[in-house]
Amino acid sequence: MYTLETIKxxxxxxxxxxxxxxxxxxxxxxxxxxxxxxIQNAWDxxxxxxxxxxWEIKIYTDSADEQAHLVVEDFGTKGMDEERWDAFLSxxxxxKEELDAGGQGQGKFVLMGASKKNILIVESISDEIxxxxxxxxxxxxxxxxxxxxxxxxxxxxxxxKGTKIWVYDIKGDFLNSINAQEFVDSIAETWxxxxxxxxxxxxxxxxxxxxxxxxxxxxEELTLLENKPLGDFGRIKRMVLQFYDEPIAEIFQGxxxxxxNMMIVRIPFEVYDKEYQNRFSGYIEFDDILERLLKDIxxxxxxxxxxxxxxxxxxxxxxxxxxxxxxxxxxxKAAPKVFLPKNLNTIIQKANQIIIENCPDLQGPGTIVPxxxxxxxxxxxxxxxxxxxxxxKYGDTIKPSCxxxxxxxxxxKCLLRVELKRExxxxxxxxxxxxxxxxxxxxxxLSEIELTKxxxxxGKYTIRATIQEDTHDVDTKATSFYLEIKREPAKRGxxxxxxxxxxxxxxxxxxxxxxxxxxxxAHKDFLNxxxxxxxxxxxxxxxxxxLIKICLDEAISxxxxxxxxxxxxxxxxxxxxxxxxxxxxxxxxxxx
Length: 592
Known about the structure:
The radius of gyration is 36 Å and the shape is elongated. The chain starts with 8 loop residues before the first strand and ends with a helix. Residues 93-104 and 366-374 have low confidence and may be disordered. The protein is built from 13 helices and 27 strands. By secondary structure, the protein is α+β, with helices and mostly antiparallel strands.
């Protein structure tokens, strides 16, 4: 069995265990990173670059002694010469060609991370070197001649040209993870291209060849962008898009971005029709120059790219072409029967009225949002004052309600004064003596107002509630209703216009732009309102409510931006609760 005393070693000059831990933390999936690093090393060293004839990699366990070791053995490869051995035994000195799949010099550290003792043992035979065996462990490496039998006495030494990597004393949890179907799927997903008919390559895991799921013949296939220049970056070799009669295996869904025959990332197709989902596939390949540039910005785990050119240009082009392909395949549906309500101006006016009365911080299009004045809230205050109706007729009843909040750490006694006025004339006044506990809230139903011709002339009425403590007014709120008259139009409407558009995408509306809200009249929410309320009068009313709510949602979104622009010492949770309560009140006013 392996002992340090029997092998000549030398210090590396650094503790590799710390390097290994640091590198492993970079990977989202360590097993996936392991297989990519192990297989791409062997793929880069294949003898037959064109067809990979006789190229094979085997991943298996060897329990020749009391411990379990994971072995990665390749066939049909060059093996390691002096330069590659030097690179392996150094800290950061990769020996890779520009177009190899790997090249960041950290693959060995990933493999070491699967060993309990961070030990890697490597055997190799090449044209230059008949047989050599070396090992790395934390801060030590081989400096003399040794054999695999010095570490695993009953092991069979490598006897063919190629390389055999031993992950010594493999971690139990890692061994379990690579015995799972998920690990098999990750290999098939990454290396589908070298396992397809184009190459003669084989990947064997624990004695079983990995065979990716077979794709049926596509119903539609399109090859495009052949030899297409991409700016000054290089050329796209080809992009292939496919559509199938039935859903296909997940590993083939999306456009697979290939580099060095390794799948780096998949770009999904945007398909919103459930009948056609999971039936699109494709891949894209690049010339040597473009591959070299992509390699430079590839993530360390070979599972994506940094958001830099040329990746952002490639991603944009793939999305554009795949969208065209999807649109060509999916038949156009008959346009839904949609219309703008005849009373659109009234709907916009009501939305503006609710917004201007509840969100005075918001102004209409073309105006400048004023800076927020930092005003501390009193501990004892009115949380809200609301009415059941805004536009009323004789015979209706106004039902005001409010809530008093005490955020002080002591009980409070206060007086709540309520007044009703019209054009400065007071119609009634009443007072409520209250006692509210520390950090408590007290909801109140105020006196109802029955509107009769004898007592109340037509016009705008304002109800004001004021909290008084020790003869001092500490907080006040007011709201209005309109008796037998229309509500006043907002002076600066937040909403300028509502415009329809139709899209199968799950987008209800586009963000407000210069006061204009574009609403998707093909959205299921709208179609549901249209279908459920079939009678024209009720339908028009419900569509109006739907449109107003969308306008209010945009106002709430804008209000968040205003409030968060200068957060100051305010608690974020308090702001969110305040705005959510405001949204509920505004929704309530849609129907009154």
